[in-house]
Amino acid sequence: MSATTIKLEADLVKKVAALKPKDESISGFVRELIEKEHRARENRASAVVYQQFLEDNPDERAAMEV
User: Fold this and answer.
1) 3-class SS shares of the chain: helix, strand, coil, % to 5
2) pLDDT tens for each residue of 23-43
3) What angle do CA 8, 13, 19 make, to 5 degrees?
4) Cβ(61)–Cβ(55) below 8 Å
């Protein structure tokens, strides 16, 4: 696994430190935020695909409405 260091300005570090739980590291908190954002984007993309599926398959859409 390759490691990458991301540098944050002091002001941003203060903001992140204020947001994170006291028992969590800044790195862990930022990692979790990135993972949550990635999942959210995947979920939104999946929702778009599913909406298109329902539009293309009226029988399936009718079954879901019941």
Assistant:
1) 75, 0, 25
2) 999 999 999 999 999 999 999
3) 135
4) yes
Please list, residue by residue across 7-32, b when 16 or more beta carbons sit within 10 angstroms of its beta carbon and e when fewer do: eeeeeeeeeeeeebeeeeeeeeebee
| Dihedral of alpha carbons 41, 45, 46, 48, sign | positive
Q: What are the structure tokens assigned to 14, written together?
A: 């203060």
- pTM score of the predicted model: 0.76
| Average pLDDT score over the chain | 94
Give the span between the Cα atoms of 27 and 56, in whole angstroms: 44
